[in-house]
Amino acid sequence: MMRGWRVPALVSAVVLLAVLAGCSSGGTPRRVSEPAASIQQLTVQADGSWSVDLRLQNYSSMPMRFESVSLAIQVGGEDAGPLEAQPALTIGPESADVVTLPFAPSANARLLLAGRLADGTGTSYRLEGTVRAAPADRGKAREYKVRRDSRLSPVPGLPGVLR
């Protein structure tokens, strides 16, 4: 007599599990993480200005819309000046993209970098400021604080280029 109720109970349990599985989100959790910025390449132009290839990193699990960057650049401890841009760039989840920006450095930073290039040595750099970004499909943009300390080295065979 016990056997008779086991089959309907088993069927009910399977149906209940199927209903519960259908109610779960089933997708990847949506996570917004702080973005990062770094200099991928810096090119010294003939007129002394710089071209900065700024790498914007999206660590979020969803595409993010990068609306603006406001960063102070230092090279070798010298203030080079502010880097301001509105890239209007959407970067996929856990990905990065590069935006090339013109930059007019301070006289001291220009001289320091020219000397380092002439010596064939690299230099340290610091980026400090904010990146404004929001989920691409919704949401209001938020400012994220960014600070990056790294190094740039001359690229052999490419005069005036550091990576």
Automatic annotation (TrEMBL):
<dbReference type="Pfam" id="PF03168">
    <property type="entry name" value="LEA_2"/>
</dbReference>
<feature type="compositionally biased region" description="Basic and acidic residues">
    <location>
        <begin position="136"/>
        <end position="151"/>
    </location>
</feature>
<feature type="region of interest" description="Disordered">
    <location>
        <begin position="136"/>
        <end position="163"/>
    </location>
</feature>
<feature type="domain" description="Late embryogenesis abundant protein LEA-2 subgroup">
    <location>
        <begin position="54"/>
        <end position="133"/>
    </location>
</feature>
<protein>
    <submittedName>
        <fullName>LEA type 2 family protein</fullName>
    </submittedName>
</protein>
<dbReference type="InterPro" id="IPR004864">
    <property type="entry name" value="LEA_2"/>
</dbReference>
